[in-house]
Design brief:
Elements (H helix, E strand, L loop, with lengths): L1 E8 L5 E3 L2 H7 L2 E6 L7 E5 H12 L3 H13 L2 E4 L5 E3 L2 H6 L5 E8 L1 E6 H9 L3 H9 L4
Antiparallel strand pairs: 1-7, 2-6, 3-4, 3-5, 4-8, 7-8
C-alpha cells in the first residue's frame, strides 16, 4: 500500500526523487499521467494498477470512454527510476501540473499523486479534522 507525504525538489532537467519505500511497491517501470480527480496533479501507477484503471475505463459507454482515453492516454508515459531513484517527468506533464522546483508526493493507497507544493498547500487547507470526521461517519468508523 502506498502512503505518506514527501516533499522533494525537481531539478533543472525535470527529474524528481521517488522514495525507496514507494519505488519498491511501484516496481521497475510505472505509468505517470495527468490526474483524473479534477485536480491539477499527476498520478503515478504501477503497471498492475494502471491495467486495472484501463479495464475500468473500458466498461464506460464508448462516448465517455473515448473522452477519458483522449484526456488520459495523450498525457501518459511509462517511466522508470535512474540509479539515484529519480524519474524524469515529461515536460508536458510538468507544465500541466505546474511543477517547477518543488513537488509534494502523496501515497494514495494504489497510486501516487504529485502536486505543485503551493497547490497542495491550498488543497490541504480544506481538510480539517471536522471535515474528515464527517466523511468517516459514513463508514461508521
Amino acid at each position: 500500500m502506498l502512503f505518506g507525504g514527501y516533499q522533494h525538489t525537481i531539478d533543472k532537467k525535470g527529474r524528481m526523487f521517488i522514495p525507496s519505500k514507494l519505488r519498491d511497491e511501484l516496481g521497475d517501470q510505472f505509468v505517470i499521467c495527468r490526474g483524473i480527480s479534477g485536480k491539477r496533479c499527476l498520478c503515478i501507477y504501477s503497471e498492475a494498477e494502471w491495467n486495472k484503471l484501463v479495464e475500468k475505463i473500458e466498461t464506460l459507454p464508448s462516448t465517455k470512454s473515448s473522452t477519458v482515453k483522449r484526456f488520459l492516454y495523450e498525457g501518459s508515459f511509462t517511466i522508470e527510476c535512474d540509479a539515484q531513484g529519480r524519474v524524469l517527468i515529461p515536460a508536458a506533464l510538468r507544465e500541466y501540473a505546474m511543477l517547477e522546483n518543488d513537488a509534494h508526493i502523496i501515497g494514495m493507497s494504489n497510486n501516487l499523486e504529485v502536486w505543485n507544493t503551493e497547490l497542495w498547500a491550498k488543497e490541504n487547507e480544506q481538510y480539517t479534522p471536522e471535515s474528515i470526521a464527517s466523511i468517516m461517519e459514513e463508514l461508521n468508523f
